[in-house]
Amino acid sequence: MSGGHDHGASSTNEKNLWIVLGLTTAFMIAEVIGGVLTKSLALISDAAHMFTDAAALAIALAAIGIGKRAADRKRSFGYYRFEILAAALNAVVLFLVAGYILYEAYQRFRDPPEIQSVGMLVIGSIGLVVNLIGMRILRSGSATSLNVKGAYLEVWADMLGSIGVILAAIIIYFTQWAWVDAVVAAAIGLWVLPRTWKLLKESLNILLEGVPLDIALDEIEKALLAVPGVGEIHDLHVWALTSGKNSLTVHLVLAEAGEEQAVLQATTDMLASRFSIRHVTVQVEAAACDMKDAHGDSHLPGAGVLTEPKGHHE
User: Fold this and answer.
1) Residue 313: pLDDT band by 50, 70, 90 thresholds?
2) What is the pLDDT of residue 297?
């Protein structure tokens, strides 16, 4: 992935996030008013999700803005990690909102209020349209950015919430079963939890510099050992700065002396073409060094040779 492509994708994501933020904020205000007037917890819970949507979108936009800042003497890798911090924060907020909705649903189930189902139905229908538009806009970016994925999941949850509000309104209108409102609200909260947990795990994996979920370390080891001229490998580390920006460090022990440049070029070309890893630090050794694997520190650039495929710039 070239630098130009990264900037283009970031610009598109930023524009899409601004559009969805405007739609979400406008409808959130309408839904809060509607929830109070109709006394519908399902509407209020959906409005709460809308609020977290707006917050998630605002955080995502802030992360993109900060992430554009160039690397400096204090942040040699730049500010890409802000995207992951934003995704983790969105996950935490979603957990809190889901917990509040479940608590309120329990209280409402015990003592259901009178609900104006017609107003609830109208507002829920408008919300469904807004959410479908937002999902369509964010769908492409969610596949490449955890930051956008967090916002997309928020909108997805709201879309289900709107469907739940519509179904609850129809049931209440024909049966007068006010408790259905609380059941739908609880279902929305429970549906969000596992998806929020997945987002949080993915974010924490990057923050802890774990192996990216789309990378199989065993396959990389086999591919490195298959490079002509490589006898052994050690101190192999793979991690991600942010979504889609993976880095790798490794020590290669040559099978024969005098092949350093050929091995370096073959290694970087292979990692870029097969695994899309372009930020690579390789230390070539004639014999295995005595350095102990420091785990937490051995992946930092420094003693090794920083290499990139020809024509590539981060």
Assistant:
1) very low
2) 45
* Whether the Cβ atoms of residue 272 and residue 278 lie closer than 8 Å to each other: yes
Q: Are 126 and 23 in contact (CB under 8 A)?
A: no
CA within 13 Å, CB half, 120:
31
Long-range contacts of 164-167 (CB under 8 A, 24+ apart): 164/42, 164/46, 164/188, 165/40, 165/42, 165/43, 165/46, 165/120, 165/121, 165/123, 165/124, 165/127, 166/121, 166/124, 166/125, 166/128
Model-level pTM? Answer: 0.63
| 122, 112 Cβ separation under 8 angstroms | no
Question: Does 70 have pLDDT greater than 60?
Answer: yes
The tokens describing 155, both together, are 């909108």
For each of the domains in the chain, give its residue range(s) and CATH number, in order of start: 3-207 (1.20.1510.10), 217-307 (3.30.70.1350)
At 230, which helix (H) or strand (E)? strand 230-242
pLDDT in tens, 15-47: 788 888 888 888 888 777 777 777 766 667 667
Helix, strand, coil % in the chain, rounded to nearest 5: 65, 10, 25
Question: Are the C-beta atoms of 189 and 45 separated by less than 8 Å?
Answer: yes
Residue 300 CB contacts under 8 Å (≥ 6 apart), including other chains: 249
Residue 52 has pLDDT above 80, yes or no: no
Cβ-based burial of 8 (10 A; exposed 0-12, middle 13-18, buried ≥19): exposed
Structure confidence at residue 10 as a pLDDT band (50, 70, 90): low
